[in-house]
Design a protein that fits this description.
The protein is of the alpha+beta class. It has a four-stranded antiparallel sheet with strand order 1-2-3-4. It is elongated, with a radius of gyration of 21 Å.
């Protein structure tokens, strides 16, 4: 093999590695942010406005909205939105939660707002 061929293989491998690493990092970031969105939306849906966490949200750092869009058995399906105005972060989430206990919400989908 010539030096040019070996160099081309090395460059191709390095580019593939960095592309894959960037993809993995963005997927991890998406997971963390989705969990954050679910957490805030679940707290909002459970009507616990007295908590320090929700008071911080209501001070304007975060805006949280949540709307029940349907029911499946004993569970509600909700669409919600979390906006962190200070850091320009916005996520929408669709999740399912138990109508009686209002616990254990399950994230069905989360997306970054544009």
């Amino acid at each position: 093999m010539s030096k040019v061929t070996i160099g081309f293989i090395c460059i191709t491998f390095a580019a593939s590695y960095f592309t894959y690493s960037s993809y993995i990092s963005s997927e991890k970031l998406k997971t963390v942010n989705s969990d954050m969105a679910l957490s805030y939306l679940a707290h909002n849906q459970k009507w616990i406005e007295q908590t320090d966490q929700l008071r911080a949200i209501n001070r304007g750092q975060f805006t949280v909205t949540s709307v029940i869009i349907g029911k499946v058995g004993a569970d509600y399906i909700s669409d919600g939105k979390v906006e962190d105005k200070g850091n320009s972060i916005c996520y929408t989430a669709r999740y399912q939660w138990n109508a009686q206990t209002r616990e254990n919400p399950t994230l069905l989908d989360a997306n970054k707002c544009y």
